[in-house]
Amino acid sequence: MCHYEGHVKGDESSKVSLSSCNGIVGMIKHKNNEYYIEPSKHHAPSSHGGHTHVLYDKTALKQNNEPVLQKKKRRRRRRHRLSNCGTKADPKRMSETLIEYQHQGKVIVQGGRKLRKHREKRSISSPRHVEALVVADPSMVEFHEDNVETYLLTIMNLVSTLYKDPTIGNSIQVVIVRMIILEEDELHDTLNITEAAGTTLDSFCKWQNTMNPSEDDDPLHHDVAILVTRKDICANSGCSTLGVANVGGMCKPDRACSVNEDSGITLAHTITHEIGHNFGMVHDTVKTGCENRNGRILHIMTPSFEADTVHVSWSNCSRRDITRFLDQGLGSCLEDSPLEDSVYEYPDLPAGAMYDADHQCRLQFNSTDETIVVCSKPEEICQTLWCTTSEGCITKLRPAASGTKCGHHKWCQDQHCVEMDDPPVKIDGGWGNWSDWSECTRTCGAGIQSQVRFCDHPSPANGGEYCVGERARYKVCNTDPCPEGEQSFRALQCASHDNDTVKGQQYTWLPYFDSRKDEPCELYCTDVEDTVIIPFGQFAADGTPCRIGTNDMCIGGICRKVGCDWVVDSNTTEDQCGVCGGNGETCETITGEFSKKVNISEGYYEVLTIPSGSRHIVIKESKASKNYIAVSNTHTKEFYLNGNNLILISGEYEIAGSLGLYEREHELENLTIPGPTKEDITIHIVLKGKHKNIGLKYEYTLPTIQTKEPKYYWKLGEWTVCSSTCNGGKKYRLPICYEKDQGIVSDEKCKEFAENRRPEKITKSCNDIPCPSPHWWVGPWQLCSVTCHKFGDPDPIRRRSIMCVDQNEIALPTAQCNDQARPKETDTCNVPLCNTTEDTPNDMLEIDNNSNAIESSNDSNESYSEISNVIE
């Protein structure tokens, strides 16, 4: 490590932060002054490695020698879209919706995301800490030499800033817990770094996983691994690729990784973009619902990084993707806070102050040749950085980094050359008010209403923290059952696409269910011929049941638990008898298997009859077969499923007043009917040709006949609330009538049937403390309206609120308090006399370590303002 922190000897309130990686760079805060030190750009290191340093306070800044432009020098633009992200929806690498169709026999399936099992799902903004491993390959060491660590810290500081941008809608902190600098002789056989982005990513992901301590509380354990190289990496989009990553790989040890090409300060955007993929974000395109830019603001997840950009921000789609990723519990590894002494410190200075315009030119054109320098005027570089190379004065249409000097006492901020000033104060975000409840998403069958609030009172700014807490809340509405025969909510959503054209054809769509997929909130639909299966839109609408037979609902694309009490995230469940919160004593479960030899070669064979009122009916084949399951009304003989030699496709079907789910996957059938059924039903097996009965398992529950007599008895209830909060009160335990299964019942039951005598009430004293007398409540002093006053003027006044209150802090008439003890309400402000004399800036001192030579200059510099416009 070459980064140090401490204080000035004899001054504990001072602060010193220095880096000695390549000369001394840092800041000294002492009393009311701030001093900066850095190696001089005008002197080469001495033979023994010593540097000439510049020491200056924040009102002085070294003036660089500005290059002289030849008036007739021709400038050439290299106008092109800088580069592309190589991350594609590769089914081997991404947890993204697949772009192409996948053929599975007759069925054309457009694939979907694979979601792992996860922890609690709530729409809560929580602090997330991304602990990063940063790896620099030998090409980085060759180019940056001893400065590689400082350079990467500067880049990751910009990455951290971009993840604090409020448009991301979450509290994200990116920290470095480990940095590995690879020399040529340190490369391992298992780590193969080449120009092939995909191959390098696969190799790096495996290698970093072996380097990662398994315990999350290990100070060297990382959540994401970042490889940085100066190789010109190539992917599907060609060699303009800047980075590649695994979509949705965060918190998956072998997939939370990315490969990033160093092309200068914009490396920060590349790393930010690729970590975004790890968070489950996809590229911003019209197809995904977001443009790649909003006016002159470029979205960070644009597939192509454009140079002519002033600002960058996260799109609504990116905010949606990362919020859903975290709400699903997929970012659980980010919940632990890093140990302070295990985290690398980011530089205090902005990137442009760490690396001047000449150095940025060499970074952009991948050269260490010191003849490559700026060839544009200082006031122009904030918009476009022009550089002298062997091809002349050319540009890649990138601006100089924020903090780059652009004139006397000026630097670049937001692509403008502005006066240096103190950095803006960080403003932490605050929650606004909750919105009104939304309209219910359904008119029957249980829908969802929602309330939301935004982190905009105030919005976080200048690197301030994003709000933490609940951002949305939900309640169930319109729980009355829908009329019999009405389509299910999921079926209505599929039917809304009946006029859509898919692959040049129009279809009639029905819901498709696949019990093997852990994605019940994706809206999959199939045509009535069962030839095409496709996901429509992002997710099923809020209030869509996750699965038949449960109250769980899709909310924001996530399957949320809903109790039988119709409360979101409730743990109250029905027992197998259909009793909410019951113990299963009111029904019995019948199970069996029909496996006997059937004496017919083809047709319908009755297996069993299930009585009306049955619940949790499950019928499934013991093995895959060519046979089918059929269901009919026992009395009318009409079929609900697969009757009259007409075999239906998998889907939802109404069976005896209950919506059932029929599934057939690879010739293995399963039928689930939640119940309760309103009619007796008969289960059939439909034999086809020479195929024998291979077994049919069944299970259902029936209500038991309750003959137990109720037993009533008296008991004392809980203590009542005290009748007074002070000066003594009373509380009581009163007799109540109780029945074991019914709980508290009318006293009349016990008066006639109780097995014991009614107990007497118990009385107890409480809150004997004396009530405090009325007293004065004193508010805080308000701020003075001025910071100084002119000589001879009256002293300015400050005020505070005074109220008479009781012991519960409730306001009383002023007359009830002792007026003699009333505190004063106004006071004079202790502010100095106004002084119009301006301070004269101190001269800058340049100190040579070897010769004690002193130079002076009159430029000034102040600390870093947040960077928000570096181009990806």
UniProtKB/TrEMBL annotation:
> Residue ranges under compositional bias (Low complexity)?
855-872
Which keywords describe this protein according to UniProt? Calcium, Disulfide bond, Extracellular matrix, Glycoprotein, Hydrolase, Metal-binding, Metalloprotease, Protease, Secreted, Zinc
Which residues of this UniProt protein bind Zn(2+)?
C85, H273, H277, H283
Q: Where in the cell is it found?
A: Secreted, Extracellular space, Extracellular matrix
Q: Which residues form the Peptidase M12B domain?
A: 128-338
Q: Which residues bind Ca(2+) 1?
A: E131, D216, D223, C333, D336
Binding note for cofactor: Binds 1 zinc ion per subunit.
Q: Which GO terms describe its biological process?
A: extracellular matrix organization; proteolysis
* Cofactors: Zn(2+)
One Gene Ontology molecular-function label: metalloendopeptidase activity
Q: Where is the composition biased (Basic residues)?
A: 70-82
Instruction: State the residue spans of region: Disordered.
Output: 69-90, 851-872
Per the Swiss-Prot or TrEMBL record, the active site comprises E274
Q: Which GO cellular component does the record give, naming just one?
A: extracellular matrix
* PROSITE patterns reported for this sequence: ADAM_MEPRO (PS50215), TSP1 (PS50092)
Please give the positions of the paired cysteines in each disulfide bond: C205-C257, C234-C239, C251-C333, C290-C317, C361-C387, C375-C393, C382-C412, C406-C417, C440-C477, C444-C482, C455-C467
Name the residues that bind Ca(2+) 2. Answer: E131, D216, D336
Signal peptide from the UniProt entry:
none
Listed name of the protein: CSON013473 protein
Upper taxonomic classification of the species?
Answer: Eukaryota, Metazoa, Ecdysozoa, Arthropoda, Hexapoda
Report which gene this protein is encoded by.
CSON013473
